[in-house]
Amino acid sequence: MNFCLLLPFMLGIPLLLPCLIATENPKTEEVKHPAGSHLRVRRGWMWNQFFVPEEMNKTRHHIGQLRSDLDNGNNSFQYKLLGAGAGSVFVIDERTGDIYAVQKLDREERSLYTLRAQVIDTTTGRAMEPESEFVIRVSDINDNEPKFLDEPYEAIVPEMSPEGTFVIQVTASDADDPSSGNNARLLYSLRQGQPYFSIEPTTGVIRISSKMDRELQDEYWVIIQAKDMIGLPGALSGTTSVLIKLSDVNDNKPIFKDSLYRLTVSESASVGMSIGKIMAYDNDIGENAEMDYSIEDDSKTFDVITNNETQEGIIILKKKVDFEHQNHYGIRAKVKNRRVDEQLRKYHTEASTTFIKIQVEDVDEPPVFLLPYYIFEIFEGSPYGSFVGTVSATDPDQRKSPIRYSITRSKVFSIDDDGTVFTTNSLDREISAWYNLSVTATEKYSIEQNSAVPVYVQVLDINDHAPEFSEYYETYVCENAVSGQVIQTISAVDRDESIEDHHFYFNVSVVENNSSFTIIDNQDNTAVILTNRTGFSLQEEPVFYVSILIADNGIPSLTSTNTLTIHVCACDDTGSTQTCSNKDLMLSMGFRTEVIIAILICIMIICGFIFLKLGLKQRRKQTLFPEKGEDFRENIFRYDDEGGGEEDTEAFDIVELQGGTVMRERKTRRATRVEIQSLYRQSLQVGPDSAIFRKFILEKLEEANTDPCAPPFDSFQTYAFEGTGSLAGSLSSLGSAVFDQDENYDYLNELGPRFKRLACMFGSTMQSNN
C-alpha cells in the first residue's frame, strides 16, 4: 500500500514530496517520486515533513494532503490524525486526507509537531495500513522586535577621558529564528548622545568620542536602537536608554575667593586659640576636594590648621601676642590639594594665596613676674624677720600700675610691698626641708588684675643634731666571759644633712670610771664593745651601764652621750647568750598571754550580761496566765480604782456617751451559740450614733479577735459603758453563782481555742457544784 503526501505551494515554491509505499512483506520496495525518479527503501517508514508559516491569519489554513495508493476514490476510506495537536491545532478531512491548521501558530512557542496518520476501510472498520508518522515544522517569519534584557543600563566613566575609551556594552535579543534569513541579525545605532559617544554597530560597545568635563555636566542620557534584518526595509527595532555618569578627577585646584582677610586677636588670647577662618573653594568633589592650608614664610606667631569636615582653614595663635610690643601682623596663606595624581600635576602648578591682616586688641592685663618661678635658700635656725629673697612683677599695660604682693596661707613667711620675702617663724630642716609658696601680685588701680608665681624655699642644713644610736640594743655578757670578748656591735645615725658622707667617732666616756668594758672604733661608722676583764657575777652586778660618746664630722662637730645597757647572763655550756634573750622573750610573751586572757574574760562577762538582759526581756513578754495545768478558780484580781456602777453619774458624763442609744429589753441567757452570736451583733449597735465611735470599737474588737496571744478578758477593755437595757445582762461575776447554777457552758468549747480555758474553768465549776 502507498501513502502519498501532497503539499501545496509554500512561499511561491512548489514542494514535491514522494509517496510513502509500505508493504506487509519485509522486502525492498520502490517509492516513485513525482518527478519520475525512484527511491529504493527498505520496509518501514520514510520520514516526511510539512512546513507551515507561523502567524497565518486564515481560520483554516491548508497544510497538505495524505492519500493512500489504495484509495480508488470510491469514498470507502477514512483518514484519521493522531498525536499532540491533532484535533485542536490540526484537523484532517476524513474523506480527502487534507490537513488544516485551525489555530494561529507561533514558532517561538512551538516550532515542531509530530503527528501520526492512519487510513481505515469504512466498510470493514479495519486499518488498511499501519500508522505513519510525519512532522509539521512551523517556519519563522520576522514577527519579534529586538529587546534589551539587561536594562536599565548605567555606566561611570572618568571625566576628561580620551576618545575611544570604553564605556559600556549593551546587548539586545531577538526571539526569531537566527537560522532563518536575517530575522535575528541585529545592528546597533545611536539615537541620542552625539557628539560625546559612539557605538559599534555589530557589538553594541559604547565608546567616548569627545572629552567631557564633569564640572560642566556630570551625567548624560544616551539612547541606543537595535534593528533586526540588518537594518533592511521591514526590519523591527527596539530602543534602550543608558545613563552615563562622569566620575571626578582632580583637574581643578582650590582657589581663595577673597584675596584679603581681616582678623583681630586679643592680647589675652591663649596659645592654640582660634582667631578666625579662611575658606578656599574647589570645583572637584570627594577626596579630590580635600585641601591643606599653610602659612608662607613660616610665621612664629600664627599657624593654620585644616578642618577636614568643612575644608576651612582655622587660624590659631602659635605664640602669645603683646599689644605693647606689636599691635598688628600681616601673613600670607596658601592652599593646595592634599592628593594629586602625577598625570594631573599640570592643573596644580601654582597654589592659590591670600593675605591676612591681624589686628591686636589691647586689654587690661594682670601683672607679669620677671621669672616664671623663684627658688630661694635660707639656713635653718635663722632668726625672725630674716631675708629670704625678692620677687618682682610689673604691669605690662601702658599706665604701669603699682603692684602689691601677698603670700597665700603661710605662717612661716611673709612679703612686703616691694616683693621682699622674709621669715616669720623659726625653720627646722629636719621638720621641713622645702616650702612651696604662692606669691600673688595685684594691681593697686585694678585689684581684679592679679597673677601668682610659685616660690620654692629650700631650708639649708646646719649641724644642730648630734649623732645617736641607730637602734635600741639588748646587750648580754656571760658570767664566764673572758677579757677581750666582743659582746656588741653598734652604729649611729645623724638627722642632719652632710655635704660629704657622714663619719662618726666612738669612744667611752672618760667621766665614767668603768673598766669592765672598752670600745674599738672600726672607722666605718660602727664600733665593737669588748669585755675588759674576766668573769662577771649575776648576783653581785646583774646590769652595767656604759656611756658611749659619738661625734660627727660636721662643722662644728657635735657629740652625744648614749647609754648602752649590758645584762649579765648565766650562759649555757657553749657560752651563748641566746638563752637569756629567749628568756626575756618568754617573759614578754607570758605577759602578753595574761593580758589576752584578761581581755577574753572581760568579753565573756559582757556577753553574759547581754544574754541575761535579753533573757529577762523575753520572760517579760510571756503571757499573764500560767500553764494549762494550773487552777484559775481561786485567782483574785485587785483593781485600785472601782467605779460606782451604772448609778454613778459623777465619774463620767454619761450623757455624752448615751446620745442615740438603743433600748433593749432584758432577756434571760440562753445556753446556745446562736444566742451569743445574736447578742454580739446587737451589742455592736449600742452606743452613740457616731461613725467614728463605731469604727473605733470595731477596730479594737478586730485586734482582740486576731491576736492569738491575747487572753479572753482583753476583749472587754474597749468598752467604755454598757448601756441601758442591755440584752446581755450584767457582766459582773458577783451574781454569777445565782444565775449560772443551772447554766450549761458546753457551748464555750465551740467558740475556738481562745475560749478553751474559759470552757475548762466553767466546766470544772459545774462538775464541782454537781
From TrEMBL:
Residues 68-148, 149-256, 257-369, 370-469, 469-579 form the Cadherin domain. One of its GO terms (cellular component) is catenin complex. GO terms for molecular function: beta-catenin binding; cadherin binding; calcium ion binding. SMART domains: CA (SM00112). InterPro entries: Cadherin, Cadherin-like_dom, Cadherin-like_sf, Cadherin_CS, Cadherin_Y-type_LIR, Catenin-bd_sf. It is found in: Cell membrane. GO terms for biological process: adherens junction organization; calcium-dependent cell-cell adhesion via plasma membrane cell adhesion molecules; cell migration; cell morphogenesis; cell-cell adhesion mediated by cadherin; cell-cell junction assembly; homophilic cell adhesion via plasma membrane adhesion molecules. Residues 1-22 form the signal peptide. Its main location: membrane. Keywords: Calcium, Cell adhesion, Cell membrane, Glycoprotein, Membrane, Metal-binding, Repeat, Signal, Transmembrane, Transmembrane helix. The keyword Transport does not apply. It is a single-pass type I membrane protein. The chain crosses the membrane at residues 595-616. Pfam families: CADH_Y-type_LIR (PF01049), Cadherin (PF00028). Cadherins are calcium-dependent cell adhesion proteins. PANTHER family: CADHERIN-19 (PTHR24027:SF323), CADHERIN-23 (PTHR24027). This is Cadherin-19 isoform X1. It comes from Lipotes vexillifer.
